[in-house]
Design brief:
single chain; about 210 residues; seven-stranded mixed β-sheet; 8 helices; about 40% helix; about 20% strand; O-methyltransferase activity; SAM-dependent_MTases_sf; S-adenosylmethionine-dependent methyltransferase activity; S-adenosyl-L-methionine
């Protein structure tokens, strides 16, 4: 997608609002990898998915700045709850600073720690899961959450085109690319779900549990 096309798209969709715009700016000034942030287009898409699915319980694996978290919260009903997992405890202050500025804060429950340890402790069923964490562990995340997703639930996985590296033969030390390739292959073969990859930003896979 060219810069001109992206600008055209952004000028013809809903505004992200001051809170998310300021969060984005804060991330670019103060964080090392601001590109990891979901951003305006993907954020509006996540909100729209919530409008359509109307999930009551959402699980986000990989909070980072909380940008996507807030977008999910915007689209979810008032009585919905969002559990978001972040492994980097140094990001907690940044995340909470912006959550505290939002009227949606009460919907959101931040869990700090390794998702592989936290997910087994979460009880109940989720209607929507957003995976955007360590690419090495995507297959493990999927296996851990699958039985916790209701039939008819939606799983969304980010970065599944991985800058086009999915088309390459990765070096054996490139565990992130290998992890994404293995995940994509696993989903393609899983007949328990319907799936489609959207070529938006770095690839977004929609997985619907039958």
């Amino acid at each position: 997608m060219t810069d001109a096309i992206e600008e055209y798209i952004l000028s013809h969709i809903d505004d992200e609002g001051d809170l998310l715009r300021n969060l984005n700016r804060d991330a670019h000034v103060n964080l090392l990898r601001p590109r990891m942030l979901s951003g305006h287009l993907q954020g509006r898409l996540l909100k729209m998915f919530c409008r359509m699915v109307q999930p009551k319980r959402i699980l986000e694996i990989g909070t980072y700045t909380g940008y996507a978290t807030l977008c999910l919260a915007e689209g979810a009903d008032d009585d919905a709850e969002i559990h978001t997992l972040e492994v980097n405890d140094e990001l907690e202050d940044f995340i909470m600073k912006h959550l505290h500025k939002s009227k949606l804060e009460d919907k959101i429950h931040l869990h700090v720690g390794d998702a592989l340890d936290i997910i087994p402790t979460l009880n109940g069923v989720f209607d929507l899961v957003f995976i955007d964490a360590n690419k090495r562990h995507y297959c493990q995340y999927y296996d851990l959450i699958f039985d916790k997703v209701k039939s008819g639930g939606l799983i969304i996985a980010d970065n599944t085109l991985w800058d086009g590296k999915v088309l390459e033969i990765p070096h054996h030390t490139d565990k992130q690319t290998i992890g994404i390739q293995e995940f994509n292959d696993k989903i393609a073969k899983d007949d328990r779900v319907e799936k489609v990859i959207l070529p938006i930003r770095d690839g977004l896979t929609l997985i619907w549990k039958k």
